[in-house]
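Render this sequence as a predicted structure.
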Amino acid sequence: MTIRELETKLGHAEIARAEALAASKADRTALLMVRSQYSGDMERARTELAEERQARKKLEQALQRAQSTAGEERTRRAYTRRTPPPASPESEPLDIAVPRLMPVRDMLSANPTRKVRAKPEEGPEPEPVKWWLKTR
């Protein structure tokens, strides 16, 4: 190889190196911009998530209070349906059976809307069908 060819190769290598450094610098700059944008987006998402969690917690507490109040109201209504109104002092005493008052803990566990089914009539057992008795 001649000196001229070596100088040409060296020149090409320097140009390639300079282009690679410029591309690397541009990539690094773009990466830093993306990272800064990403970190801003992540911070915003974290803030929104924290706000959403806090709002959800408040709503769950409000729901719990509403359910508790509704349960107390149902219990109160059930209790008032079971007890007769107090007699006024001017009226004559009534001959009615006064239901037994339940303790509060029993009232809370009672379900006034529950229906009781009648037991089926017990009679002689039916005779088994032949195909029931077949075993293979």
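Summary. The radius of gyration is 43 Å. The chain is about 65% helix and 0% strand.
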